[in-house]
Specification:
The chain is of the alpha+beta class. The protein has five helices and 15 strands. It comes from hydrothermal vent metagenome.
Length: 313
């Protein structure tokens, strides 16, 4: 037994410090391992432009503004990889320009090289209102009005998550945001503050919008945790299998995936709806090298793998 009392020798104290340092290192390693396992693979998602179904007809472009805010909030969460879809038209135009031969040759804007998302997120704005009670007296300066009275803002959204492979709606969630203003009222006049700006965020409508977006992100991330990561086999070379999972999606050396071969696409003869495809589990592969956007894996046993096959956790 090591003496830890006042009579402990210098050597005994050094042993105590050494053991404490070892314990701290082991605990720290366990903590980071747990965090890494909890983080998991990041799904590739895309946010489609919102549809404005509210009665709001002000100066703001709610569909674009709400799309931008949700996209930014998902990126800030660092739990998903968000692909650009709002400006997809600009990307395609740049590719067409590069293909026309009127620009210097580059590999950065080749036609047809757009990454596909696993999940498409679509939103609808169902409520965007701002009610006020009390005195309308006050002052206005550069689009901002301050006066007495009380008000409440309400923002309602419907968020749908769609599997891009099957077009199946995986989840549909309704989220809300409410904010009250009392004592004095801060309003926005037509031609004043823009949607999403710092001035807007200080208003009841701005606060309600942020609450609704935060609730939407919480629901989206919770739903994604229940959906297994899905990637694609992009190349097969001998015993090496190239996957679409890379550093940006959180892939790590040692990750194991099951390979699925897609069979015939199943289509409803009456509606034309794509119902999915027949799948056959072919075996497993294990990652041994990770790059930024892709990784290399080796086959675990006699596994038949083809380009285009699906891989899941």
């Amino acid at each position: 037994m090591i003496n830890t009392g006042p009579g402990a020798t210098r050597r005994q104290r050094r042993k105590i410090v050494f053991f404490l340092l070892i314990a701290a290192v082991l605990l720290t390693g366990a903590f980071y391992t747990t965090c890494a396992e909890a983080a998991g693979l990041k799904k590739l998602v895309a946010v489609s432009r919102f549809e404005n179904k509210s009665n709001w007809s002000g100066q703001w472009s709610l569909d674009r503004g709400m799309t931008d805010q949700l996209t930014d909030a998902l990126m800030q969460s660092k739990k998903v990889t968000v692909l650009e879809r709002e400006t997809l038209g600009d990307v395609i135009s740049e590719q067409n320009l590069a293909a026309s031969g009127r620009t210097m040759k580059s590999k950065s804007a080749r036609t047809g090289k757009i990454t596909s998302a696993q999940i498409l997120i679509k939103g609808a704005i169902t409520e965007f209102s701002n009610s006020s009670k009390g005195s309308d007296t006050g002052v206005s300066f550069k689009g901002i009005s301050v006066g007495g009275g009380r008000g409440e803002a309400h923002v309602g959204l419907i968020i749908r998550m769609i599997d891009t492979t099957t077009s199946q709606v995986l989840a549909s969630k309704r989220v809300e945001g409410k904010a009250k203003a009392g004592g004095f009222r801060l309003g926005i006049n037509r031609g004043g503050i823009g949607f999403g700006t710092k001035g807007f965020k200080k208003t009841p409508l701005g606060k309600a919008t942020q609450i609704a977006i935060d609730n939407a992100v919480e629901q989206i991330l919770a739903t994604l945790e229940e959906i297994p990561y899905q990637g694609r086999v992009i190349k097969v070379s001998g015993s090496s299998v190239y996957l679409s999972a890379g550093e940006r999606t959180g892939a790590s050396v040692g990750d194991v995936f099951t390979v699925y071969n897609l069979g015939e696409e199943l289509v409803d003869p009456d509606t034309g709806e794509i119902l999915g495809s027949e799948e056959e589990a072919m075996g497993q592969i294990k990652i041994y090298k990770v790059m930024k956007k892709f990784s290399k894996a080796k086959k675990l046993g006699n596994v038949e793998v083809r380009k285009g096959d699906i891989v899941r956790e």
